[in-house]
Amino acid sequence: MLGAIGSEVRDIVSEIPHVKDVRDDYMDALPSVRVDIDRQKAALFGLTTSDIGFALKTAYNGLNVSTYREAAEDYDITVKFTESDRRVVDVLRRIMIPSPSGQLVPLTTISTIGFAGTINDNNRINYLLRLFCVSRCLALV
Q1: Residue 24's pLDDT is what?
Q2: Is 122:131 a contact under the CB 8 Å cutoff?
Q3: Domain extent for 100
Q4: What single DSSP character describes residue 139?
Q5: Where residue 28 falls among pLDDT bands split at 50, 70, 90?
């Protein structure tokens, strides 16, 4: 709805004489993946939302597990998904979460994976009211 209003304002401002190059900074919602954890199922395996979140964060952001030293240089050894796996949603359906007992639990057993739109980085007032700016250039006559 905000995008439609912005488009109307942009069109109206464009009609003003000597105004050109009218733009707005509105962006639609960004697609994202949503993982809803079933806390009761996770608890049956001894897992918390923190455990699951850490496993997902490690898979996508990586975790430094060691350091390799060669001559005078140190190199961090980081474990994470490959770049191509980080871009594919289906890989989430194959993730195994290690439980405290050592059992590997499929993420799909303890959660539901779906898609959602997220609110983007539009400006806000008091985190409640989304706003955007319409800007213009005045032509010299």
Answers
A1: 65
A2: yes
A3: 30-117
A4: P
A5: low
